[in-house]
Amino acid sequence: MIPQKYYGVVLSAVLSIMMGLLMSGIVTALNTGFDTGYISRWLNAFVIVVPIAFVSILLLGPIARKIAAALTKSESKVDGKISTVFEKQIIWKIFKGTSLILLLHIIEVIAFGGLFWLGANIADVGTIEGASSFIDYLYFSVLSYTSSGLSDLYPTGTLRILASIQALIGFTMIAWTAAFLYKYTADNS
Question: CATH top-level class for 73-189?
Answer without folding.
Answer: mainly alpha
